[in-house]
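WARN retry 2 of 3 for item q-0093 after timeout on previous attempt; input resubmitted unchanged.
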Amino acid sequence: MFDAGVGTAVTINKWWKLVNLKPLTIRADFPLFISRLPYVETDYLQFRWMIGVSRAF
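OK item q-0093 returned
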C-alpha cells in the first residue's frame, strides 16, 4: 500500500510563559492518490485530507 500527495507539520516549542509544556506538533496530510481504496469509494485519484496532533499518525 502507498499514498501520494503533500503534507506539512508545524511544531510549537515555546508556549510563552508556560515553559514546562512539551512541544506540540500539528500535522496536515493531503493524499491525492491511494493504492488501496476504502470499501465505498471507486476513484483512486481524489482530494482527501487528514489532520493529526502529536503522534496521531
